[in-house]
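Predict structure. Chain length: 428.
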Amino acid sequence: MLHVDGSSSKHGSGIGIRLTSPTGEILEQSFRLNFHASNNEAEYEALIAGIRLAQGIGVRKIRTFYDLQLVACQFNGEYEAKDGRMGSYLKVFRELVQKFDDFELTRIPRGENTSADTLAALALTSDPDLRRTIPVEFIERPSIEEVEGVRLINPPKQEPESDEVIAMDEDASTAELEYGCDKEWLGAIRVYIADGEVPTDKWEARKLKAQAARYVLVDGEVFKWRFSGPLMTCIERPEARKIMHEVHSGACGNHFSGRSLAIKIKQHGYFWRTMVKDCKKFTVEADSYASIKDAQVEHFIWKNIIYRHGVLYEIVTDNGSQFISTRFEAFCEKWKIRLSKSTPRYPQGNRQAEAANKTILDGLKKRLDAKKGRWADELEGVLWSHRTTPRRATGETPFALVYGAECVIPPRWISQVFDEDFCRDKRA
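Prediction complete.
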């Protein structure tokens, strides 16, 4: 289903598109028109852009909902498009519609088209440099002025001239701002502590002075005071991203949750102002569900991956039933996502690691009984037992597979233990 709406005012023109799949996935987008357009022209631009978006993702059957009577009646032949521009728009629209196997245009009340109207208002009233989850793109020329029959919504850009390279790089860097650490924030604090310079605005100066009281400058580097412990090194931009990656999934990483990741980074002596928020955004790799089936997996990938980062090239999974089901394979095939299964050589990918952890947990439960808080004291013994117990699949112990020989307790130590036990029994 496709809901579209266009809006025009003295501030400019914008259009909104909401495309809903039969399985419930929703794709929303806003466009700002970089040319003067009447309200009727903006409505036609919304229809044409929505149709092109649907064709771009391979839709063959579509129902389009619209709230403007003029366009619906012109398309059905009830009204005649006497104006030359309206006739040109109608011609382009009909040519695009013929490429669908099934197309239906339905006029609905404006109150039932609020989602598309909101998206159109977003493009119309928002800042042109706004960055949001719903991208605001631009249509440079009227659709009826295109020479070719079909134009992509985001056509490939031409190679920049040598004098344009720097400007484009700056725009690209602005578009990549995802985390608060990507914004420069240490400069003002460093200048105030070193030279006492403050902004001209009274309230901004007051805010900066209050913030700078928590920091100190040592050899040109900014550090943050702590209630206890050493000073924390203040960082920003790529360095903060690198530290999040290393602590979260590096050599000693444990895939912490957002807040736990921020606390761990502080323990390592690093700090930036938005670290808790950034760490929560960085660790969106797990979500809670009452049951994990193919429908929940599909919803998670659509919401947390495709919506945020775009369509994937490949997904590597274990052999769980929810990942090899017909529905999930059809979902990957629909979006041209390569679905790969892991091999037994990677224990974390085929539940061997989960089985080992389950064995260790069972051993701890048997030793602890009611004293649940002493698991750390018993962990070493449980691990040793696990490593020296033969596995049914191989007939060998993990210790022997690693070192090539079984673990043997020294005879002297066995004799000493036996003598102590014997004397204890005699005294008893």
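Summary: The CA atoms of residues 127 and 273 lie 26 Å apart.
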